[in-house]
Each structure stands twice: as C-alpha cells, then as structure tokens.
C-alpha cells in the first residue's frame, strides 16, 4: 500500500490491544467482535486477527472486496486457509519470531521433567514420602523433531544444547541446510521413529500432517519412547495416543495442544498414565502480547510504505516458508 489515505484496519478482538498505540493517527483502527465481522469486512483495508482462535472468518468473508492484507497474531494459520481467502489476492502474514524460543524452552523443560520424573517427586512431596529413586540422563539420547520451520529448528537447537542427538524432519529433504545440515523428509519419518527416545511434533497443520501420529506411528516407536506435541492438536489421533500410553507402548507424553480446546473436563486424557497436560500455553510468556503487537506494528509500517512484509504465508503450502523469497526481509 502506497497511497496517502488513512487505511481502515479491523482488529478482531474482545477489546483493543494496548500494544497498537503506536498506530494512532496512522490508521483508522476499529476493534470488532465476531458478531460485527460480516458488516465490517467489506470496507476494511486490513484485518488483524488478534483473537486467533476464531472460526468465524470462512462464513463471513466477502465475495468481493474486503481486506488486502490479513495478519494473524499466531504462528499457525490453518484457520485462515479456507478456499475464499486462499484463492484471493489478499496477503496473509503471521507472528513468526515471537513463539519459537519459548516453545523450544517448553519442550526442553518437558523432556527434563519426564526424564527426571519431576511429577513423581512432586507427588511424593505432597505425601511427605522420602523415596530415593534414580532417573535418566538426556544427553546422548535421540530426538526426532517433526517440523522443519522456525519452531522445529529452535527446538532442535535447544535440545542439541542439552546433549541430545537430534534429527529434524520437514516437508522436503535437504542435505546442505545452512543451519542444521540435513533435513529429513516426512517420507523418512517411519525409518527414524524406531530409534527415537523423544518424538516432538512441531509441524504446521496441513493435509499432509493431519493425523500423522496415529496407531501406526506409535507402534513404530521404541517401547518407552516419549512423545510431545507443540504443533497443532489434529496432528495426533488422540485415541491412539491414549491407547499407546495405557498399553505401556510409550513411556510418557506431553501435550500442549488438543483437537478440541479447552480440553473437556471428562476427557480421558486428563488421567492418561504418564501424560503431562498444559493448556496451549507453551509459547505464552510475560511479554507475549507486547511482542505480538510489535510484529504487527512493524509489518503495518512496511505495508503502509509499500515495502516487503515479514512472515508472508504461502497460502498453497499453509505456512511461511523457511527460505524467504528473494529480496524479502528475514
């Protein structure tokens, strides 16, 4: 966008985000709830999906006109990949850069928690039981991280710093990746699972990754391996994971994302043996809302000046490619 008019920016949120104050006077900001989307979208120049858990957009996306740019305050964009938006000329961007290291730290924390049996220690403390136990070393164990994007890469780096031997799996194989050397293709996952002590799902949700961790995948893992999901809930067939835990096929698991959120109080996952449940919070730190706003403000400045945007989603792939297009900023 390079014209001199004041752009009209819709913010899908229950209340105005405080971090957008730098845009005062530069944009006509209008905060709307889902109920007002259908009426407001046709006249908007841009849309900030601050409430990124919404499913309202496919039903209200205008047949003509509408925002030229949509930004979501999330890493995952699967809720935006509906046909009308994918087939439009609207540019979609996400909040890549905010979540990677916090999620990697969460994964490292859960790996340590499972290996060192922190849950067992806490339980014995509550019961005032002094019971000496031995735990596991993580250095030298093997991890397979599924998802070759920034979150998977940050996770691979962090686990490697703990001494784990890490294999990274992405959409396509590469043998000369400048950061990790070799990236395995999804088609190679079956061959990697039997040797993995830790399997981390950090992939975006696409047709290729949906339900990729099912009974067959869990059966390929070595007995006692641990599984962690920080990607998207539908990557996992939860009934199959539950069965693998109950049968002792897996030695434990940690889930931060689920097929239905919030997790129902009656879900059997709450009581699954060896499962650590967290409420989709692995990326959320004390500064995350300010960080999300900062990414949007920076991208708005670029968009207003007609400069390349950060984090442009390839709508056919359903995520931001790791390798930026020529001339675009990293």
Write the layout of secondary structure elements.
Blueprint: E1 8-12, E2 28-32, H1 37-40, E3 46-49, H2 57-60, E4 69-72, H3 83-86, E5 91-93, H4 100-115, H5 118-127, E6 142-146, H6 150-161, E7 165-170, E8 174-177, E9 181-185, H7 189-192, E10 198-201, H8 215-220, E11 225-229, H9 238-246, E12 250-255, E13 275-277, H10 288-305
Parallel strand pairs: 1-2, 1-3, 3-4, 4-5, 6-7, 6-10, 7-9, 10-11, 11-12, 12-13
Antiparallel strand pairs: 8-9
Helix pairs in contact: 4-6
Throw out a few tags for this protein:
2 domains, disordered C terminus, NAD, D-2-hydroxyacid dehydrogenase, oxidoreductase, alpha/beta, five-stranded parallel beta sheet, 10 helices, Rossmann fold, 330 residues, 13 strands, elongated, 18% strand, eight-stranded mixed beta sheet
Relative strand content: 15-25%
Strand arrangement within the widest β-sheet reads 8-9-7-6-10-11-12-13
Low-confidence stretches: 324-330
* Main sheet record: 8 strands, mixed
The beta-strand count equals 13
Q: Secondary-structure element sequence? A: EEHEHEHEHHEHEEEHEHEHEEH
CATH class of the largest domain: Alpha Beta
Q: What would CATH call the architecture of the largest domain?
A: 3-Layer(aba) Sandwich
The CATH topology label of the largest domain is: Rossmann fold
Number of domains: 2
Mean pLDDT reading:
95
Protein name: D-2-hydroxyacid dehydrogenase
Family: Belongs to the D-isomer specific 2-hydroxyacid dehydrogenase family.
GO molecular function: NAD binding; oxidoreductase activity, acting on the CH-OH group of donors, NAD or NADP as acceptor
InterPro entries: D-isomer_2_OHA_DH_cat_dom, D-isomer_DH_CS, D-isomer_DH_NAD-bd, NAD(P)-bd_dom_sf
């Amino acid at each position: 966008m390079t014209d001199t008019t004041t752009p009209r920016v819709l913010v899908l949120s229950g209340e105005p985000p405080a971090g957008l104050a730098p845009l005062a006077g530069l944009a006509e900001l209008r905060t709307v709830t889902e109920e007002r989307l259908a009426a407001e979208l046709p006249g908007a120049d841009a849309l900030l999906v601050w409430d990124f858990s919404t499913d309202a957009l496919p039903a209200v996306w205008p047949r003509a006109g509408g925002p030229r740019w949509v930004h979501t305050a999330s890493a995952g964009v699967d809720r935006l990949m509906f046909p009308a938006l994918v087939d439009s000329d609207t540019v979609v961007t996400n909040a890549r850069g905010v979540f990677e290291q916090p999620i990697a730290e969460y994964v490292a924390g859960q790996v340590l928690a499972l290996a060192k049996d922190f849950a067992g220690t806490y339980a014995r403390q509550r019961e005032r039981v002094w019971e000496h136990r031995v735990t596991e070393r993580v250095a030298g164990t093997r991890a397979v991280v599924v998802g070759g994007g920034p979150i998977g890469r940050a996770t691979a780096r962090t686990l490697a710093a703990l001494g784990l031997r890490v294999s990274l799996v992405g959409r396509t194989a590469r043998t000369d990746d400048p950061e990790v050397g070799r990236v395995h293709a999804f088609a190679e996952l079956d061959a990697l699972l039997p040797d993995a002590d830790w399997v981390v799902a950090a992939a975006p949700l696409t047709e290729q990754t949906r339900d990729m961790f099912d009974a067959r995948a869990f059966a390929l893992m070595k007995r006692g391996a641990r599984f962690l999901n920080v990607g998207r809930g539908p990557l996992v067939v939860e009934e199959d994971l539950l069965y693998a835990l109950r049968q002792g096929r897996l030695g434990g698991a940690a889930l931060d994302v689920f097929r239905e959120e919030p997790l129902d109080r009656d879900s059997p996952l709450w009581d699954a043996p060896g499962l650590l449940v967290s409420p989709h919070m692995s990326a959320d730190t004390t500064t995350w809302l300010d960080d999300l706003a900062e990414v949007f403000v920076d991208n708005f400045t670029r968009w207003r000046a007609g400069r390349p945007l950060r984090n442009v989603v390839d709508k056919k792939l359903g995520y931001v490619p790791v390798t930026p297009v020529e001339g675009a900023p990293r």
